[in-house]
Write a structure and sequence with these properties.
By secondary structure, the protein is of the alpha/beta class. It is built from twelve helices and 30 strands. Bound molecules: alpha-D-galactopyranose.
């Protein structure tokens, strides 16, 4: 039996969002990523970059033949004319060794005529040339990385006519440099070449929006590697548009993107999605593409271009859906309604209308309603279906999509042209960044990045008071098994103080380790390490001098004492972690 769920819009979640978003879009604010004050390279990607990347379809098996065929197909299929401009060669284009001058060279078997030849071919098709490297001594496929060769590699790329560099992070924890330092080096050497090259941060979503990725790049990954199935697509989507990677108060990472800098939930799997049923697969491909468009995500296709079906081509080239992604206002869409698997996203556009995605992530057929209240409109409003390119009529107060099946979705444009609609209110800077003179309790701030289990604020993970040696702490974090979370800094702060212990309710034998890092894991800059602690270990205090930091990461790691493997049951507490700024 098909269960039909008529979705009410007055649910608690909407109300929660209204509070979080200060009026569900009723407040006007200036996008802090205003393009006007940006350095010149910010103008390289005033709208999300569009192109095709070899990894999702070919992995290591790229060569002159299939890359040139992809270039041909980008033109013949209409992809280029629809806006896809970069053709990016991912990992495994390079020879296992550098040449006698230390320069990178093409794999002689795969690319016998070299990379300049490939670049020239790509350019001759009216496309731009993108290339992959890794900031460590080797790439994810164990080929030569750029570490120690940053200057010569950027110069080599410029000489080959490269326009776009995807800079990966496998093994970067051995570099001895913070991620912010690493990427700044590439930016400097790119500028030194005098060639305009986009820099794409590929780091599995390790907080570039917190530590300043926009100082050096135009896009940064927000999550792990995307796979050709919808659980992975939705998980990646939620790294940018949900709470997978940030405190729920942010309602996704929308406030960290804008003209010049983009959150990248990874490359598209449209055309690769493994679903047998043709209709469901088509809905899934549209759901994936629509989600990336509403999230103002970079659109890097990753399918087999010469052999794609007409249906996949029509999805990838849908002009009015792409226009939402490429809207010059550059607002990343955000959720305005969630009820289990049913979601509504809103993306106010430059022309005064707004784009809305109604998405059924579940398997059961459902209706989804968007009310004008959710999107800052009222009264009678025109609604257009952007997939069908058809006006649906004038609707009063709301629009309901009926009987959306598995992955069913509608992409709509609602409202009339005119003054741009307000966006939701962003979380104020001082609510997630250490800005104050005096004492700032970290648990008074929202973490702006997290991985694994989210910490619980001001109680243990299980909701009990934080107690160490009989003393109750009003502030702090409760953690379970594995947690990592980061607060943004402004270099303000002289000391970080607090205390850690395993939760007193934890009676198991496993151990937990607390560490505090400057910035993300890749920098490996450990400011403090509790060492392994068990339930019998006395609490440990930390009192760390801080010197110029732009991200403080707190981590908790529970391990089985005997096997050394992750232990799921260990509970730990950070008690009263606070930053003291003297002036
Ligand atoms: C990492 C990246 C992928 C891809 C591979 C190549 O996993 O996240 O996008 O570039 O490396 O080895």
């Amino acid at each position: 039996m098909v269960k039909r769920i008529a979705k009410s819009i007055s649910g608690a979640l909407v109300i929660a969002f209204c509070i979080v978003l200060s009026g569900c879009g009723l407040t006007q604010h200036n996008n802090s990523m205003n393009a006007v004050d940006q350095p010149e390279y910010a103008y390289l990607a005033l709208t999300p970059p569009m192109g095709w990347n070899s990894w999702n379809i070919f992995a290591k098996d790229i060569n002159e033949v299939n890359i040139k065929a992809a270039a041909d197909a980008m033109v013949a299929s209409g992809m280029r004319d629809a806006g896809y401009e970069y053709l990016v060669l991912d990992d495994a284009w390079m020879a296992p060794k550098r040449d006698e001058n230390g320069a990178l060279q093409a794999d002689p078997v795969k690319f016998p005529k070299g990379m300049k030849d490939i670049g020239d071919y790509i350019h001759s098709k009216g496309l731009k040339f993108g290339i992959y490297e890794d900031r460590a001594y080797r790439t994810c496929q164990s080929l030569p990385g750029s570490f120690g060769h940053e200057q010569i590699d950027m110069a080599t790329f410029a000489a080959w006519g490269v326009d776009y560099i995807k800079m990966d992070s496998c093994s970067a924890e051995h570099n001895g440099r913070l991620s912010s330092e690493d990427y700044a080096i590439y930016r400097r050497y790119i500028e030194e070449t005098g060639r305009a090259m986009v820099l794409s941060i590929s780091d599995f979503g390790n907080a570039a929006w917190v530590w300043g990725g926009k100082e050096s790049s135009q896009l940064w990954r927000t999550g792990w590697d995307i796979q050709p199935w919808m659980d992975s697509v939705y998980a990646c989507g939620d790294c940018s548009g949900g709470s997978h990677r940030s405190h729920p108060a942010f309602n996704g990472l929308w406030q960290f993107a804008g003209p010049g800098y983009w959150n990248d939930p990874d490359m598209l799997q449209v055309g690769n999605i493994r679903i047998e049923d043709d209709k469901v697969r088509e809905s899934a491909n549209k759901a994936h593409f629509g989600l990336w468009c509403i999230l103002a995500a970079p659109l890097m296709a990753g399918n087999d271009l010469p052999n794609m079906t007409d249906t996949v081509r029509d999805i990838l080239t849908a002009p009015e859906v792409i226009a939402v992604n490429q809207d010059p206002r550059g607002v990343q869409g955000y959720k305005v309604f969630v009820n289990d698997k049913l979601e509504v996203y809103n993306k106010p556009l430059a022309d005064g209308t707004t784009a809305v995605l109604l998405l059924n992530k579940g398997r059961e057929e459902a209706d989804i309603t968007v009310t004008w209240e959710m999107i800052g409109l009222s009264g009678r409003q025109p609604v257009r279906d952007l997939w069908e390119r058809k006006n649906l009529g004038i609707f009063e107060d709301s629009f309901a999509a009926k009987a959306l099946g598995e992955h069913g979705n509608m992409m709509l444009k609602i409202g009339r042209k005119g003054k741009p609609l307000p966006t939701a209110a962003p979380v104020p800077f001082e609510k997630y960044t250490i800005t104050r003179q005096g004492v700032t309790s970290l648990s008074d701030l929202y973490y702006a990045w997290k991985n694994y289990n989210a910490p619980v604020y001001n109680t243990t993970f299980e909701g009990n008071p934080i107690i160490i040696d009989g003393k109750i702490f009003e502030k702090g974090f409760g953690c379970k098994s594995k947690a990592a979370f980061m607060f943004a800094g402004t270099e303000r702060g002289d000391r970080l103080m607090g205390m850690v212990a395993l939760d007193e309710s934890y009676q198991g034998e496993n151990e937990g380790r607390f560490r505090i890092f400057h910035e993300d894991y890749f920098g490996n800059r450990v400011l403090w390490d509790s060492g392994k602690m068990t339930k019998d270990s006395p609490a440990k205090e930390f009192d760390i001098e801080l010197e110029g930091y732009n991200g403080l990461m707190l981590t908790f790691d529970g391990r089985n004492v005997e096997t050394g493997k992750q232990a799921n049951d260990v509970l730990g507490v950070f008690a009263d972690p606070r930053v003291i700024a003297n002036d």
